[in-house]
Amino acid sequence: MNLYIIYIHYIQDNYKPTVTVGHKEIKLKKQNKNIRAVVAIIGIFLVLSVVAGIFMAVNQASADPPSSQGEDTPSQGSAENSSGTGSGESGAPKPSPNTPTKEPVHGKTPSPSQNNPTPPTQATANEYRGVWISYLEYQEMDMSSRDGFVRDITAAFKNCADLGLNTVIVHVRPFGDALYKSSIYPQSHLLTGTQGGECGYDPLLEMVTIAHSMGLKIEAWVNPYRVQLSSKMPSSIAASNPAKDTSLTFNVNGGVYYNPALAKVQDLVVRGVEEIVANYAVDGIHMDDYFYPTTDLSIDKANYDASGSTLSQENWRRENVNNLVKSIYAKIKSINPAVTFGISPQGNNDNNYNSQYSDVKLWLSQPGYADYIMPQLYWGFNYLTKSGRADYQFTKLAQQWAGYPRADEVKLYIGLGAYRIGGGDGGSNDQSEWSSGTNLANMVSAARAIEGIGGCGLYRYDNLFKNSAQEVLAHSERANLKERYNN
Fold first, then answer.
1. Phi and psi for 449 in degrees, rounded to 5?
2. What is the pLDDT of residues 345-383, one digit of tens each?
3. What is the greatest pairwise CA distance in the chain?
4. What span, in angstroms and rounded, lies between the C-alpha atoms of 392 and 386?
5. Which CA distances in Å does 259 have to 225, 251, 324, 483?
6. Cα angle at 31 between 25 and 34, to 5 degrees?
7. What does the alpha-carbon distance between residue 27 and residue 31 come to, in Å, rounded to a whole number?
């Protein structure tokens, strides 16, 4: 910027004012004192205008996002396997199931990417402010006794409440098991080290009591189909586990999953949800993105042929998932209409539809499937694919989801990737936004500024509160989130 300094000279000879503009001096005719005063005032005004311009330019420069590029491919990860620090099994990051496969279909035209969006214009009193507490968090807690667990989970919930969150999403069935008293599923191995062991207390009952005492809502998070993630997680399946009936399951990439095509499996999952809602004062039931575990059509081809369906096998799979989701919703509402049912699918909706056979647009647009959808938008404001595409940048994806047709009864929230702190999102560009200490708070503000988005969830607790690898950045992110939630 070229600055022209404008000032006033008073020359003793008859007090003739001289105005200098840039490097050119202009002498004015002799005037009376009033004219000289006017000229002086004009000069001062111009100087102040220049100073204000410099100040605005500096502020604008500090708000501009980075734009350098590198090489990488897009990745997201599910709400559990994208731990950022490893999986809890071997410490190695899990392969990402959320890699974009093709260009998404956009809804509303997105506004330009912005790290400091316009403050919200509407009240946020009913804003959803959630955090996932997964089985990975439990591995860091003392679950061997009631006293140990109550101490650790109380500290965790207190941290959540102090941050300004209002909802905790707690894992209660990560592997065809239960962290509550169940007549259907065996006790989780997380409690005693062995699936089916008796821990002597009821973790969900304790969590409900503690959460409500702090003014927090609590949602029970279940994985409907997953039994084993691998041969090591969990290391064994209890004899009392319904999955011991291998006719109900199939094996995929070393893991064990219930077959979504079977009516018996759907009934099993619905009854599992029923006993939670009937026996515990939970505020909601939550599912993430674990639906069909494979695109291999041979694995359930016999079931498809036996069904006599006139649908394609792909659409038949989608119908199987739709039936389960709709049945769960109906069962919850028949017991307690106030209990919500929410689903957190992948941020790339093409993957949901084509890889997991989840028709999320249907669940959004039609009542009777879910009370809310919370897509996992785990990419940054400035994310670029290896080829330089900006399709998956946070604001653009949030706008896209907000642009999908949505029934009045269905709310839209956004899942944020706290596990990206300090590590980035794998984009081909500069990753400095994830080392700013403000990215999550800026995403909360960006979501608030988009009509139709009612709040955010943070994946996951440990990445915010027990992040030894990025302790300083995590502290900064918490401080900025707390400030944002208080305004």
1. -80, -10
2. 999 999 999 999 999 999 999 999 999 999 999 999 999
3. 109
4. 12
5. 7, 10, 12, 45
6. 110
7. 11
